[in-house]
Amino acid sequence: MKKFLSLLLLAVVALFAVACSGEGGSEESAEGESADSGEGSGGEESAESWEPSEPIEIVAPAGAGGGYDTTARMAMQTFSEEGIIEEDMGVTNKVGGGGAVGWSYIADQAGSNHHLFVTSPPFLLVPLNGQSEYNYEDFTPIANMIADYPAFAVAEDAEWNDLNELFEDMKEDPASVTVVGTSSPGSMDHIAFAYVAKAAGVDITQIKYVSAQDGEGVTQILNGSADVFSTGIAETAEQARAGNMRVLGVTSEERLEGETLGQFPTVKEQGIDAELVNWRGFFGPPDMDQAAVDYYVEKFEELSNSEGFADVRAQFGWNEMYMAPEEYQEYLDAQNEEFQSILDELGLGQSE
Amino acid sequence: MGSIEGIMTGFQTAFSLEGIMFVMIGVLVGTFIGMLPGLGPISAIAVMIPITFGMDPSTGLIMMAGVYYGAVFGGSTSSILLNAPGISGTVATSFDGYPMAQQGKAGKALAIAAIASFTGGTVSVVLLMIMAPALASVAISFGPPAYFGLMLLGLTAIASLSEGSTTKALISAVVGFMAVTIGIDPQTGTQRFTFGNANLFEGIDFLVIALGLFAIAEVGKLIIARHDDSLSDKRNVGSLKITKEELKDMRGPMSRQSFVGFFLGVLPGAGATIASFIGYIMEKKIAKKPEEFGKGSVKGLTAPETANNAATSGAFVPLLSLGIPGSGTTAVLLGAFLVLGVQPGPLLMVERPEIFWGIIASMYLGNIVLLVLNLPLIPYISKILNIPRPLLIALVIMFSMIGVYAISFSTFDLYMLVLFGVLGFLMRLFAFPAPPFILAFILGGMLEQSFRQSLSISNGNFMIFLESPISLTLIILSVLSFIFPLLKLRKKKA
């Protein structure tokens, strides 16, 4: 009998593990649809107010530990800590294709009111690259929450003191400088650099961009394999504070707050007219009920104004950037057009 | 100066009542989840992250670190007993561990794995403590050309991973290379062999292939051989006792692989999986009786088990001293740090010595707890083999599917698991060895990426591979390791 007991124990542990890590797995979605349609047909009263009737699944279209994942988890945690949403919530990671795998999963949940997902500029860039069959217009905007900013860093002993010196060299010989980033060409790190370099007058089609995963970007800057690290502020702050790297420019409108971050010069103050926000917000699946959208918009606004979320922003060095659906949509329309023209210039765009 | 003081603070943190308690919880959860086929440190850490909310950062991180190395420690169990690797770092463990268990020495195999894991873990913690600050420069010493050299050196071992036909081993390796190119190419963003299917964008996960080629293929073999009674009398677990000769056999690999594994772990991107393979291959090359490898050799089991645990401690060097996550698992661990408000990086040691040294100090305790916990459990755990075969087969399939599903919560991966299970079964039927496939799959991605990164950086000039002393050395070693066996062969014939 003992062996059966130990086996049973193993099985229980396994199921527990899977259930926990997958809180809100896909089995909910199946139930979700029937529950939703039941409520949707409820008539006028559901058009006025809607409340979640089952756990809400927040999809982070990337692996655990990244920007998408952190945003999703911190929002979820603050929602329940502040008592803004009482219903259970769970974060699912859908890794792959720079987000495309997650978007295709969400597209399959069309009409569900219990699914949300985190978005950021790759949500525009990846579809523009032709790497996703869905783009932002297929989904339901809910709210933008925070702003993070791209930053460009070099090794402490690099020859350039500011962006203008770097771009002067790049204008002479673009191939003499190696830019490293984590994303693949045509997505965030590459485009952020190209965007600023273009404003400075560099021939961006000649930029030498290398993609490096698993934290290799930092390694390549520190050992001199690559010259410029195009990444987010969070990835550079610690290295800058320790004196290993120098940040040549951040793309925020004004200098950021904080002891270390405040020392980073903006791109603008160096006379290059370029600003770029790494915004992060939340979207729902296609055809989400208006009542559910209204519910979430209200909750996310409350979250954005809460003290708990202010602490989270401070902890991760994010800025507040709340946008309601209409404003968010317009913002994305404008940015999408800008990205389209840059990608076309780089020959990476898949214009229809 | 402050270093000694820091170490003292670390020990105080780790050996406080809370510290001890949470190390034990961490390694307990880690080792149990690690034991399950397919579930490894990533799942274990992900399960534990919500528990750390609101905890004191140092105790929380001591626990999370325990979950991580505990899972690597426990990962060998299912490799040995079921040929179903719990984590990628223990695939090489099954090469000799599973045959040993099949020979009725399951208890012994588990004991050897536990002792080797303990030794690898403990020696590397000592190295970590003495050299962590100094090793930061080693961790970043490898540029793309050097990684290319390292991967090349690993590849020269393909021939030595096969029994019999070298041609078949090479074919198997080539298919492995082809499989790893599936997905979006990071250097150009181009889709390769995805057929527009979003499920293939990220490529095929290593565990899908490992569980398919090993666990599911083995299940196929067991089903075919179900009337073969000769297998069933070998089901006894055997004694745990390790003889003096066996201990002597273990000594060499343990002392060498503790160091090799640790240094490979320090390099971001190399990690436990590559360390375990290189450890295995290295021991086979220098062994007096290499023909015993793959048939239940004590050395062949000791080497990867020591190396993967040593590499796990090594992986803390870039994470703690530079804030560089060298693997998917340490990236998740980095996420756990951030959630607790701790930013790993060059200043962690100075500003938060209780966390930096606390984690390292807690690993001594963690490894002892793991050994004490695992050894007495072996007789019970290895009774899994006494489960009637039909039930055991069903359980292996179920756990493999749970493990694969837990990677990405996608049913598509389950079909891939079946596909690779069938492939693995056919490979066995026609005597194509699976290890070269796996090795090519592990090394191929990095080999290709570092090769292309190097050439991008040098604007297409191949001299970049010979300019840096590290890559030059590694390339020379690769050439030697390729030519040497050929020369030996000639001498024999002459």
Automatic annotation (TrEMBL), chain A:
Alphabetized UniProt keyword annotations: Signal
Residues of the signal peptide: 1-19
Compositional bias annotation for Acidic residues: 25-36
InterPro entries, per database record: BUG, Bug_dom1
One Pfam family per UniProt: TctC
Top-level taxon of the source organism: Bacteria
Region (Disordered): 23-54
PANTHER family in alphabetical order: TRICARBOXYLATE-BINDING PROTEIN (PTHR42928), UPF0065 PROTEIN YFLP (PTHR42928:SF3)
UniProt record similarity statement: Belongs to the UPF0065 (bug) family.
Protein known as: Tricarboxylic transport TctC
TrEMBL record, chain B:
A matching Pfam family: TctA
Residues covered by the DUF112 domain: 20-439
Membrane-crossing segments per the record: 20-49, 61-82, 109-132, 138-159, 166-184, 204-224, 259-282, 322-343, 355-381, 387-407, 414-442, 462-487
Organism: Salinicoccus roseus
InterPro entries named in the record: DUF112_TM (IPR002823)
PANTHER family in the record: TRICARBOXYLIC TRANSPORT PROTEIN
Annotated protein name in UniProt: Transporter
UniProt keywords, alphabetically: Membrane, Transmembrane, Transmembrane helix
